[in-house]
Specification:
three-stranded antiparallel sheet; about 40% strand; homotrimer; five-stranded antiparallel sheet; Jelly Rolls; elongated; alpha+beta
């Protein structure tokens, strides 16, 4: 009988302050370890001022422009905000997280993480200073 | 052999009009009932003018500021909108829903809903008047 | 013993340029084929300049207004953008994708895709010219 798998891994990622870090390879490696042939790879970030996104992985200017766009849309130190005791970048970080993703599921097809050719998975740190960020992966599906 | 579980629950939630309501405890309780040790807890809202979000759960000003930010970004009664027959807050409610989440999956690790320390799950009512909102939970994974 | 199912399908969808196309029926049909009674239907788009959304399915002005809102929020040809070699609509298409969804899971309850009465699932093409877009569905859960 085909085996049903739920494989979980936790990883801690060091960020350099506001910017996005590609984590696709971490997911690819976890999918290989899980032994799932058909299923899904779920990733979750346990924070509210950093988030996840799937974004174009070829031209780095795309992520620079995303950073510019979000900085203009949600300015640090906006006088609209009352939650300011953790810094001018804190409330913008929460809003950026709400507007992007805290969790994602990506198909596993024929034993491989089935991202599109131009898709990368990124952890997006929204605070200006470096942080340690915890993510959990759950790869589930049918094994061989 | 380890049992594979898909446990489903439906809940109806009374909202007070535009504001967010924490539903983390509803999810924690459903996870306990499900008996899943390793897996995922999925929650879905069956509406297009209310949504879900994971947000900071300590300082209530964070959610006040989110409300202010979204109200400024998507003004009620904006003359841009042609869909106005259900009220000045209706089209903004649809846009807020599209910009946030209709569904979320959160890992279940060692039998517990693995939210980060500062993460809460919220139902966000975007209409100005109170509504009844239906959510469905699907907790799936391996049992004991 | 109840059968555990992971049913996967790939579909290619022809878009007409910037606009949204309802794909709810494609999901309903896949759920019927899968034979899942209790579980989830996951859909994933393998691109970074087209996305998915759950939106009101009755009044077509809702999606017209969404288009107007996103066009005003993220103007084509904005001088803020440095990634311009693929056209004035390319960077806005990436931002629109990041602000909406690349993947969605919808509950399957009693063998049916459990969308709310007014919910439709849409593929949203963000480029101005027509494209071929690949989606993958994974329907998983317990069978009869």
């Amino acid at each position: 009988m085909t085996q049903n798998i739920y494989h979980q891994e936790q990883h801690r990622i060091d960020t350099l302050g506001r910017s996005s870090i590609e984590i696709s390879q971490t997911l690819h490696t976890a999918v290989s370890s899980a032994g799932v042939v058909s299923g899904l790879c779920h990733v979750f970030i346990h924070h509210t001022s950093a988030s996840l996104m799937i974004c174009e992985n070829a031209a780095s200017e795309v992520r620079d422009d995303l950073e510019s766009f979000f900085s203009r849309l949600i300015p640090d130190g906006d006088p609209l905000f009352s939650h300011i005791d953790e810094g001018a970048d804190d409330m913008p970080a929460h809003i950026r997280s709400v507007l992007t993703q805290t969790e994602l599921s990506i198909p596993v097809i024929a034993g491989r993480l089935a991202l599109g050719t131009w898709q990368g998975v990124y952890l997006w740190e929204h605070r200006t200073s470096p942080h340690l960020r915890d993510i959990s992966m759950t790869i589930h599906g049918l094994g061989a």
